[in-house]
Specification:
Distance between the termini: 27 Å
Strand content: under 5%
Helix content: over 70%
Radius of gyration: 22 Å
Number of helices: 10
Structural class: mainly alpha
Shape: globular
Amino acid sequence: MIDVKRVTVAYLYFLLILSVVWMWVNIPNISGVVENTSWPGLLGITVLYLCSHVFRMIRLGLLALDERDKVFQVIAAHTLTAFPSSFFPFKIGEILRLTAFFHVFEKRQKALAVWLAERFGDVLVITLFILGLYVLEVSVPPAMKNIFMLFVVASVMGLLGILAVAKVFVYINRHLVLTSHSAHGLMLLRFSHALRSLELNIVKSLEGRFSGFILLSVIIWTIEILALSMFINLFALNKPDWVDLFAAGMLTSLSGSTSVVTDFGLYQSLALVILAILSLIVVLLVNRLKISKA
């Protein structure tokens, strides 16, 4: 039997060590950037990117409002996994965040529903942004066109798939309950019940909050785009095309590659390290308050 408390404490120590080591290793890189520009530029980009994660925290709290006792925990799960997750390529780090959500919520369908809704918000806003570039007749690089098509297909197929399969399983459930007594029928019945529960949890997470959820998603990506714009204005050489660099940043975010916008990745990591250290302090203070009250 896994001791969840010990695993959590071990992870917190790991996160603290990882954050300190990253800061120590990257002091020369940070100093080099400061020499080429100024502290206001460094702080401006870092604070903007940090603010985008603050709004991500608010969005997660909004999605968890139907289980209000879990709001602080799900926010902590995000802040404590965001930095380690950034090291994994191709968004594999999302597995770590999803695992943390599973630890927070008693029902796994709820954890998966919050994670899926969060990802849907990001995909929807990015898709609308790229669509806006088309409407404004801005030249879109091939890489961004591929992202646009991928996101549109994934969003449409994902939504239609969940809705269609869930509705079909309603009728299958009736048939299985009335006629089937085999092991395969029971397995299919359990699967359909889990899928139906997931659908209901997604609806419950967004019920009465969809407009606020979309607004927060727009704010998050607006701030991230502003941070990238500030980076381009302050540091980019040869005045590259903004859309090209944004597409490069998008691909870097999706693949985990550091070969395109390494300097901007430095600011992102610095913001996530600050977020992780602040979260560790908050979690420590909350635990001490709980112990003192007990």
